Amino acid sequence: MIRKLILCSTMLCLLSACGSVESPEPEEQPLTAREALIQSLPPVEIQLKEITPESLPTEIEKHRGKVVFVDYWATWCPMCLDSFHHLSQWHQEYADKGLVILAINLDEDNESNRKSVIEYLTEQRAPFENFISTVKPDAVRDEKYGIEGSTLPFCQIYNREGELAVTLGNVNPDRLYGEVSIADALTKLFPETDSAENAGK
Known about the structure:
single chain; globular; 9 helices
């Protein structure tokens, strides 16, 4: 009888202990490289300026003496969104050395799209100059901007003399838009960066 009482008491204690154990909280997922980069940036108030193919040369000329990276993107372009955070990465790496990024959105210009674009840029904490094209989206507009094949993403990189040095897109297999090809182009346009790094080694 005593054994039964002890056994019952032990079982009750075990059940009570099991019931009081709290469920472990789910572990937080580590940040992706993109999320970590964005969170490392300070929040910014986005100024979405208007631009046309005719006014773009003036914007580029404003930065004569610097390397100007013109990036064309749209919210409907998955590849643009996947790579957009790299613009911030290059801005962080090269802005002090003379890089200016002009990000030009090519969504149709209306109130709803402007709101969406500003929200996206705010989420991305885009620290560079941001524009929206006010020209009706069609092949003629894209040709005036110099966008090969009217395909995105597409970028143009101008050297310090204001000359078009590099174009990267999705048409010419030798000049495909991508993280590696852009990083390589920037390295060649900022050779003093490599010299400084090598001197410090």
